[in-house]
Amino acid sequence: MSQHDHGKVCLKSHTVGGSRTSYGKVRTGPKRGNIRHVKSRINGPGLNRQHGLSLVELMIGLVLGLIVISAVFNTYLGSTRSSRFSEGLQRMQENGRYGIAVLQQGIRLAGYSTTGGLDPFDIAASSENRIVVQMQREFDCNGRDTTPNDGIAINTYAHDAANQLITCTGNIGNEVMPIVEGVDQMRVLWGLDTDDDAVPDRFVTYNPSISNQDVLAMRIALLVNSGESIRTRSGEETHVVLDRVFTTNDRIARNVFSSTVLLRNGELTNIAR
User: Fold this and answer.
1) 95, 124, 141, 201: least surrounded by Cβ within 10 Å?
2) Quick one: the chain helix, strand, coil %, rounded to 5?
3) CA atoms within 13 Å, Cβ hemisphere of 136
4) Cβ–Cβ under 8 Å, residues 190 and 218
5) In contact, 217 and 199? CB cutoff 8 Å
6) Tens of pLDDT along 166-218?
């Protein structure tokens, strides 16, 4: 049988016992129906050809992704800016209140002595941005024992404009101790009693001729900053610090803290004299 007879049915006859019997013999080659069945299984729905994204779909996906990233980034920046602003204001408030509290305590006890007659201030050593306070106390503002100085503590509160600090220097060891940071300005007015009624009549700036007998109160003010730029824009601001006016133009927040302190021992000093 030739190759062209592949897959065809051939009939043959065979004589057995005088009878003629016919039978068919099928070649083993694949039939056309079987071939179509195999092809349908190969090309079934699970193995269909897949297509990628079009250029338009890809560009839309990129744009949507950029929008989401931009929204997240803006939210992060806003949260960071708000946190920095809150921390700056909190730092400014804490420094201002603490600085005023320390100065109040130091000035209020000026002139304290169990024997009386101690001048509240060393006026000759004081200045517009420095107050020299004298009192009987075991330790000075740096914690040093005042026994070598007959138990008298002499504390110098001063403004370090270069480093924006309020410092205190004791008379034992003369060590400078920073008290408050972020202070742009410090102003002091001396409350004088000019008619001997035990009430301050006027507040004046420092003058070496001020008498301790006339000083009954002291008015102090601090211009405290936030320590860093916490505002989004620069802006010109005017700050009134007692008798002075200061102008700033930057992104740093500032506030004025002030207090009037009455001397507890002013009258005792005058009586002792």
Assistant:
1) 124
2) 30, 35, 30
3) 10
4) yes
5) no
6) 999 999 888 899 999 999 999 999 999 988 888 899 999 999 999 999 999 99
What is the distance between the alpha carbons of residues 262 and 237, in angstroms, rounded to a whole number? 31
Rounded to whole angstroms, the Cα distance separating 6 from 8 reads 6
Total residues belonging to the chain: 273
| Burial class of 43 by CB neighbour count within 10 A (0 to 12, 13 to 18, 19+) | exposed
Starting at the edge strand found earlier in the chain, the sheet holding 165-169 runs: 130-136, 152-160, 165-169, 176-181
User: Is residue 231 helix, strand or coil?
Assistant: coil
34-87: per-residue pLDDT in tens? 545 544 454 555 555 656 678 888 888 888 888 888 888 888 777 777 778 889
Tokens describing residue 129: 């941005």
Is residue 100 within 8 Å of 188, Cβ to Cβ?
A: no
The rounded distance, in Å, linking the Cα atoms of 75 and 78 is 5
Cα four-point dihedral sign 83, 86, 88, 91: negative
The single-letter code of the amino acid at 174 is N
**Interval 3-23: pLDDT, tens:** 444 444 444 444 445 545 444
> Cα-flanking dihedrals φ and ψ of residue 7, to 5°?
85, 0
100 neighbors 220 (Cβ within 8 angstroms) = yes
- Token couple for 247: 């102008």
The pair of three-digit structure tokens given for residue 83, joined into one six-digit string: 């946190």
Residue 217 in tokens: 């109160």
